[in-house]
């Protein structure tokens, strides 16, 4: 099982600082819509004023929005803060509306994203005010807190996740239970409210405070799940919807996530290893995919027998697997980076000191503690999980054997959800009923939001159109594919949809790094 946000590689993500809300811009916001099962929005939320101020960095404006902790009991418990951002259209008189977007994960920050989206499409930037937010539990919004970074690191630094001995299995369940206990103790009672359903009500309040009756939406990765839920719960509040690299939002998190070991292994064996073998002169990992795979397994076995102390960071086989799965998301940056990493770990003494330090810093924390906390709050709380430990021991044994790259950690993550407090989140059935046509994009070898999942979601979303991209990158819009970009721009700006499902050629795989 793999966390499925496009990872930040080799550099920290840009952060967007915010200032508090105070005064409403001209034009009062309409009352936020309510849907079945939720009470009216209290005045203190729907009449609040967003004070847009420059973000600490970048070209965006930012503000703070107050939301109920529980939308089903909005007067109970303390309010939460959701930080929001916007990039205004260059000519407000010519803009056609508001485009809302969100981040992947769950657990990634959405605040800085409107700047990049606007920069990548002049047509989109002219047509829309582009807005986003840090979802409740994330980033600059009210955080959900679980274990500290050292405990999260221990999930990957302790032993080898391929180990199926009784002692190793017991240690996995002990760490999972300890993590859940930390979440229950340290989250301040937030766990039941860090769900996609609660977040989409935050989104609709945001829409209301922007003073618009409808928004268009773009959402990649987990944000496809978020967008599908928002459109389903508030169908009269959406105009044009684009979902990129899709989670199967018609099913459960359990059914979706247990499919990921297959897709990461497929991307590794069918795309990366042939590319690595083709570039053997640069990386010296083997002239055939089988030889390249054997080189990876030899390095992994060496780290199993003797973890490498690299500039104070202990590199284990689990951390190598994390680096490899992260590299599968995007070939252009990920494949050369992983190939160079394999070479460095085989012979670290011959690598420049700055390269050793950079790798040590990159691999020190395989998963951030804040990301880890929000990811499990959402995926364990949105939909039900099997809570039988024997079921997960048996199922993860098969995943480890057949698809070891990501399958080796299936038990680690499923054990957390198997021990999670039982959730009362409502069941949201996504069907597409009452919605405008939805444009979907997915690559055939996407490692995280695998193609089979996107097809299931497409079939369950009436009236949707699926653009199939013939490569394996995660995220298609504004990632170098002119065909995919044109379909999205034409729909969001002009309302033009393909008459039926169609395809785009993929982006060619990268050349080897200059210094393999």
User: By helix and strand content, what is the structural category?
Assistant: alpha/beta
Amino-to-carboxy terminus distance: 30 Å
Task: Tell me what portion of residues adopts beta-strand conformation.
Answer: 5-15%
- Strands in their spatial order, largest beta sheet: 1-2-3-5-4-6-7-10-11-12
Shape: globular
Indicate the low-confidence ranges by residue numbers: 7-34
Question: What's the tally of helices?
Answer: 20
Mean pLDDT: 92
What does this 3D model show about the protein?
- By secondary structure, this protein is α/β, with parallel strands linked by helices.
- Helices cover 43% and strands 13% of the residues.
- It has 20 helices and twelve strands.
- The protein has helices at residues 43-46, 113-120, 122-127, 149-157, 166-186, 196-209, 222-233, 253-257, 260-278, 280-283, 289-305, 317-327, 331-346, 353-364, 369-382, 389-402, 404-407, 410-418, 451-460, 482-494; strands spanning 53-54, 61-67, 80-87, 97-101, 128-133, 215-221, 238-246, 308-310, 313-315, 438-443, 465-470, 502-505.
- A ten-stranded mixed beta sheet has the order 1-2-3-5-4-6-7-10-11-12, with helices on both faces.
- Residues 7-34 have low confidence and may be disordered.
